[in-house]
Write a structure and sequence with these properties.
Blueprint lengths: L4 E2 L13 E2 L19 E2 L35 E2 L48 E3 L30 E10 L8 E7 L8 E5 L1 E3 L2 E2 L3 E4 L14 E4 L8 E6 L4 E5 L11 E4 L4 E7 L8 E6 L4 E6 L5 E3 L15 E4 L8 E6 L4 E9 L2 E8 L6 E5 L8 E5 L5 E5 L11 E4 L6 E7 L8 E6 L2 E9 L2 E4 L9 E7 L8 E6 L4 E7 L5 E3 L4 E2 L9 E5 L8 E5 L3 E6 L5 E7 L4 E6 L8 E6 L4 E7 L5 E7 L9 E4 L8 E5 L3 E5 L11 E5 L2 E7 L8 E8 L2 E11 L2 E8 L7 E5 L8 E5 L3 E7 L5 E8 L4 E7 L8 E6 L3 E5 L1 E3 L2 E2 L3 E4 L12 E5 L8 E5 L2 E7 L5 E8 L5 E5 L8 E6 L2 E6 L4
Parallel strand pairs: 2-69
Antiparallel strand pairs: 1-10, 3-45, 4-67, 5-66, 6-7, 7-8, 8-11, 9-10, 12-13, 13-14, 14-15, 16-17, 17-18, 18-19, 20-21, 21-22, 22-23, 24-25, 25-26, 26-27, 28-29, 29-30, 30-31, 32-33, 33-34, 34-35, 34-36, 37-38, 38-39, 39-40, 41-42, 42-43, 43-44, 45-46, 46-47, 47-48, 49-50, 50-51, 51-52, 53-54, ...
């Protein structure tokens, strides 16, 4: 598939998606069709975290997932949030019958919150491990079985972090047009480091971005991936790409295969914490070498052997205190055929010029500058074909030029003040006006300024400002094919490339649409999965400060199709306006509003906001048909109470009405008595004791609450499903080492029927048909060490628990806090999938006995869901971290 970015036209589109190749296999058989207005419940059926007032704690919600094999599901994933308690989330997949009971397969997802979510990197080795083949009612045993599915490393789709010096323009494929290469640093799949290449097709069109991983060695994770250079190191007239990796002290060279694509990288060990790279011929052999500026202020040359392999020379500048060195420049200053070096010394307010004497020997001269230089570049500014120097003082407001005197020495600095705003941090030299003289492009306080060379090293400052916030690197090239040199700026805040197109009068025009390298989401993004454009594929709706739609192009490839400024969290999917298309409903505790985004039919949305009371935390948030009118209403928590926004029938909503007091850890919305109105069953605190409570729906958005059962121990979670096969939904509540079964008498009255020993404290419960007998079984996930399976024997009886070790997933001692069921190996049996610091699964052999498992290491997840995204009938994975949204496509052997 070819993705195209067209510059210079009113409609600018860019698709940047590098799909995860991962692993482990399959598609949940428990999936959901996009909800319609006639459905009883859409979105989250439960929540577990009780927010602390004054915090922005994020709790869990999940979606109903009735069994379906024909259509993509609408799946609301599992959330993880900051906190200190271990809570759980359960969701009941509810295909409603005439009586309103829950009859279809359901799943629930565990959620344990043990602290602030982090994004520490980990290796993506896809290591396999095994879990117990046979569960036991006594001790936990492990019987090793051969793994037939595995997880392998993949790439993140969205959320690139762009480091300094991240963009270069060069003709990578030899067609005469400059292509674009971007250095993308750590993202979401542990530790992703790579290069994104966009081939120039001519006429302002760019091909599908190609992503090359491996720009960080296996021995370390690079946070300081500052520098990227392009140069022809092997003499084939096709430039290679080289990257400096800070944390693992390596230089990485990607060989150009001749067509603008790149092969497997080669790693070279450089100086301590290499910061910057530059290219030059340091030994006079007419072959380009690499120079590396390290954090220790030393310059090390990697000498090219003529075939793009390198041998490191001795460090230069050792013993010279240049203070903090952010930048260096390389050029043959004295005309002897060997490249020399200039290094900034911010502390000393000097430039250190190192004349190359050959044999790793340098003669060092210090040149004072007018301010503290942070950036230096070499360029031909005086019109005499000698390399000069330009410097910018990042803490000041000026740019200076030092002209080469012809013998490698430099004249006094001539400065130009840029005025407010200050802090020039980025410099680039290019002939912008095609007069044969190199001009200067300055990245200043997140904006772009231009200085035009008037000849003789004299410059004229253009009074215009260009660009936007978050500027961190620049490149110049003819983007739109009109023969004029344009500016490409990377934006770390929006995680995008911003084209500035040069106009006929020499001014630059910022395009209204950026070239996204990510979604620009801040904090922890949320998402939901549904077929948003009615093409039969599962798409992804991502929410945060804004809402973004990722449309599935087939085979798990996604396109960023639209964005909406109405953001929020806990996206719920359902047809709120009755037009047959899935809409989005979001909750915003920041603005105290519910955002309703109506689907326009092409996957884009138009929205409206409805205020909700102060104190709304969006922990309990769902769409449900509460009043039996076939229209989906909104239910949301607000300051220990429940608020209902009633749907008027056309997708607009009446003002919020407070319905019932509530202080729940877990909850489910279900019609217990068959009156057509959904009731609210909760696990919550009642007079400081944990209880199962029922809030009966009396219509008009009002509930009457009663306590049903108060055990001696703490309750953590519940699931609601028809255990007795009588058409009435029953309740199973998880406590300390036990599961309580509450039977529905048919009139919506719940009575304690049985208390089963589980042998572990379940932090979450879920239901799924694990043994293929058509009855829903119970899975209990503990916050420590193990999970348990209670098979449904029929007529209201659950079998004794079979326990399986959690540490068999290779994820450490605690069980991962998020879990679901999905057909991981495509055999028709639901397996158990976990998410936390890793993706993991235990394979069901078809009789609810779980064998081998595999893991895929990731940074800590925020949300997690399993869904077939590429149409191969195997569950793929979507998860979010602080660094973005990630898609993992499954494969099986």
């Amino acid at each position: 598939m070819m993705y195209t970015l067209r510059f210079g036209h009113p409609r600018v589109s860019l698709l940047l998606l590098s799909t995860f190749a991962v692993a482990g296999c399959p598609d949940p058989t428990a999936t959901t069709e996009p909800a319609t207005a006639g459905d009883d419940t859409v979105g989250s059926d439960s929540t577990t975290d009780e927010p602390t007032p004054g915090t922005d704690g994020l709790a869990s919600n999940t979606a109903d997932t009735p069994t379906s094999t024909s259509a993509p599901s609408t799946s609301a994933p599992v959330d993880s949030s900051s906190g200190t308690s271990e809570d759980s989330t359960s969701t009941t997949a509810t295909a409603s019958t005439a009586s309103g009971s829950t009859t279809s397969a359901s799943t629930s997802t565990g959620d344990s919150t043990t602290g602030d979510s982090t994004t520490g990197e980990a290796s993506t080795t896809g290591e396999e491990s095994t879990t117990g083949e046979e569960g036991t009612t006594g001790g936990i045993v492990i019987d090793v079985e051969e793994t037939h599915c595995s997880l392998q490393d993949g790439m993140p789709n969205f959320g690139f972090w762009l480091g300094m010096k991240a963009v270069v323009a060069a003709d990578l494929d030899g067609d005469g047009d400059d292509d674009i290469a971007v250095r993308a640093g750590p993202t979401g799949v542990a530790p992703f480091s790579g290069i994104v290449v966009l081939g120039n097709l001519g006429g302002g069109e760019y091909a599908q971005p190609e992503t090359y991983k491996g720009a960080s060695s296996s021995s370390g994770t690079s946070y300081s991936d500052w520098s990227l250079v392009a140069a022809d190191f092997d003499g084939d007239d096709r430039p290679e790409l080289a990257v400096a990796n800070g944390m693992d002290n390596s230089i990485v060279v990607f060989p150009n295969l001749g067509d603008g694509s790149f092969g497997e990288p080669t790693f070279y060990w450089g100086p301590a914490w290499p910061e910057s790279l530059a290219v030059g011929d340091f030994d006079g052999d007419a072959v380009l070498d690499l120079a590396v500026l390290g954090w220790d202020h030393n310059v090390t040359v990697l000498y090219n052997q003529g075939d793009a392999t390198f041998v490191a020379g001795a460090p230069a500048l050792t013993g010279t205190n240049v203070g903090i060195s952010y930048s260096f420049a390389v050029a043959d200053f004295d005309g002897d055929g060997r490249s020399d070096v200039a290094v900034t010394s911010k502390i000393e307010s000097t430039l250190v010029v190192m004349r190359n004497l050959g044999g790793d020997q340098f003669d060092t001269t210090t040149i004072p500058t007018a301010a503290e230089p942070t950036v230096v570049i070499a360029g031909e500014f005086g019109g005499d074909d000698r390399p000069d120097l330009a410097v910018a003082d990042g803490d000041g407001d000026g740019v200076g030029v030092l002209l080469n005197q012809g013998d490698g020495t430099f004249g006094p600095e001539v400065r130009w003040s840029l005025g407010s705003p200050t802090d020039p941090q980025i410099l680039s030299a290019a002939d912008l006006d095609d007069d044969g003289l190199q001009d200067l492009v300055v990245g200043q306080n997140r904006r772009v300024r231009t200085l035009y060379n008037q000849g003789g090293g004299q410059f004229l400052l253009d009074g215009s400002y260009y660009g936007g916030t978050g500027l961190n690197s620049l490149a110049t090239l003819d983007i739109d094919g009109d023969g004029r040199r344009d500016i490409l700026a990377s934006n770390r805040d929006e995680r995008s490339l911003q084209p500035l197109l040069q106009q006929q009068d020499g001014s630059f025009e910022r395009l209204p649409t950026t070239f996204p390298l990510g979604l620009g989401l801040f904090g922890l993004p949320h998402f939901a999965i549904a077929d948003l454009d009615a093409d039969g594929d599962a798409d992804i709706a991502v929410t945060g400060d804004e809402q973004h739609t990722l449309l599935n192009q087939g085979a798990g490839q996604f396109e960023l199709a639209s964005s909406n400024e109405l953001g929020g969290k806990r996206p719920q999917v359902g047809d709120v306006d009755g037009d047959g298309r899935p809409d989005l409903v979001l909750c915003s505790d920041k603005t105290k509003s519910v955002r309703v985004l109506r689907n326009l039919g092409d996957g884009s949305f138009a929205g409206a906001a409805y205020p909700v009371p102060v104190g709304t935390y969006c922990q309990l948030f769902a769409l449900a048909n509460l009043d039996g009118d076939a229209a989906l209403d909104v239910i949301v928590d607000a300051d220990n109470s429940v608020v209902v926004l009633r749907n008027k029938g056309d997708g607009t909503f009446a003002p919020a009405v407070q319905s019932v007091n509530y202080k729940a850890r877990d909850w489910s919305i279900v019609d217990l008595n068959g009156d057509g109105r959904r009731d609210l069953v909760t696990v919550e605190y009642v007079n400081e004791d944990m209880a199962v409570t029922l809030a009966r729906n009396i219509g008009g958005g009002k509930f009457i609450k009663e306590a049903l059962f108060t055990p001696d121990e703490t309750l953590s979670s519940l699931v609601v499903f028809d255990l007795e096969d009588d058409g009435d939904p029953d309740v199973v509540a998880g406590g300390e080492n036990v599961a309580h079964v509450l039977r529905n008498d048919g009139a919506g009255n719940l009575e304690l029927q049985d208390t089963l020993g589980v042998g572990l404290p379940p932090s979450a419960l879920m239901t799924a048909d694990l043994d293929g007998d058509g009855r829903l079984d119970v899975v209990a996930a503990a916050s420590r060490q193990a999970y348990g399976v209670l098979l449904n024997l029929g007529e209201g009886e659950l079998a004794p628990v079979k326990r399986y070790p959690a540490n068999g997933f290779g994820l450490g001692s605690p069980l991962p806090p998020r879990f679901t069921t999905a057909d991981v190996d495509g055999d028709g049996a639901l397996d158990v999938a976990f998410g936390g610091t890793a993706l993991g699964y235990a394979l069901n052999k078809g009789d609810a006995k779980f064998g081998s498992s595999a893991t895929y290491t990731t940074p800590d997840m925020h949300q997690f869901a399993a869904q077939d995204l590429d149409g191969d009938a195997k569950a793929d994975f979507v998860y979010t971290t602080e660094r973005g949204v990630h898609v993992v496509l499954s494969t099986c052997r």
